[in-house]
Amino acid sequence: MSNRTKSDREDILSHPSLPVVYSKIRGLAKELAVLGKIDFASKITDLLLLQNHTKHGIGQMQFLNFAFEQTGDWPSVIPRSERSKEVLNELEVPPSGSIDEKRYNDLINQVKLCQRDPALCLTIAVVLCEQSGKADVEDIQQDKRVIKALEQVTDHFHDYIASLIQHRKIWPLLASGVVARQLGVDDAKLFAAAEDIVETVRIRIENGRQKGDHEGRPIKELLEILVKNTKKHAGSLYKESQKDPPKSYLHNPATEQDINDMEQRLKIPPLPADYKEFLLVSNGLEPVYNGLGMTAPLSNTQNVVLSSLPGPVAVPLQLVQDSSGTAQLIREAGYNEWPSATKHIEIGRTYEPAYLLTDPSDVKATIKAYKNALASDEVSDVMKAETTRAIEDLYGSMEAFEKLEWAMMFTVDFDPGWPVGTLRSWLEETVRMSGKPYERSSGNTCLAYACRAG
């Protein structure tokens, strides 16, 4: 099993955020379809939409209907009414602009990657083939214009998957597996990876999130693992930034008096037990590796401040995100009645990204809003189920969520809208992610590249 397949499996099984899990599953289904494994994409779609059956969830997968139309591998969850030519014709978005040789040449000869559109080039090439009397897929594959467009597709394949699936005209080509062959994918490796992905998705959907062995350990042990993984995997990040790693990632421990002084200085309720435990081990934390890059540093007790986020801004406070964002739940429950955040403390920051703890008064008011929404006749059963799953995955259980006092948030550009649970859950997820080697190029994480021959 490749590192990519192992990483995908672990993310799907263990990531605490349903939006992240669903996005990962959708991405794999779309990539497998583009690589010609439409039957596996259908199985994954069936599993996903049986659970994520919101309007947003269905909409995110709708362009794969062109793939299922091509091979007849329709997921059972998609009703027959959605498979008709009429419905698919409405879904199809005709390419804008002229569809001719000049347009093709203008696009195919673009030097800058940002100005290229190889999916549209491929569509134009197929149309031109059909206009010249070529109807057989094998004949179309041999067309020079098609070959050149495919070369651009495979040159930066990971960038073009999302646009490829939207072009109905090219699905006979994609279904043939031509992209996989162009990429040099080993069919046996891809088949094995696809089988494993389907089984992994089934386990997550049927059994819920799997906890890691490290979860529940003392904060000190989690920090020790995190430091060890940072030293192991972050070397190239320091080289890229031309910086030296710190002599120590951990700080000297805070005292109980340090914590009491901070609470009095900020005039806040008693801090959560997990954050206190962290401070008593290390009074702050240098940036550490999180599988993607380096985190923002966590401040010591003297430098923790009340949040400088602009306010009051009537932004609904999200303690969990469902697959379409809490906004859908809020709209169904009543936007004007949803609490907003009024007070945070900032426990860590770089230039823009910051970690916040939201005040218990705001958290309790928002928990009450969630409970009311989950009991409301105005909220659909599908949305209630999605929200309940998201809460249980992020906080462990509905009971733990209802007992929550402080909630941890990640913010960028003054938007305190990305809940990460608690300090402990954030640290546990960072530890899990830190076990992955750093890969600078997103292309190297593409499933197709992991399944290449050789």
From TrEMBL:
Pfam families: SMI1_KNR4 (PF09346)
Organism superkingdom: Eukaryota
Family annotation (Gene3D superfamilies): SMI1/KNR4-like
Annotated ranges, domain Knr4/Smi1-like: 253-429
InterPro entries: Knr4/Smi1-like_dom, Knr4/Smi1-like_sf
Name this polypeptide is given: Knr4/Smi1-like domain-containing protein
Gene source species: Ophiobolus disseminans
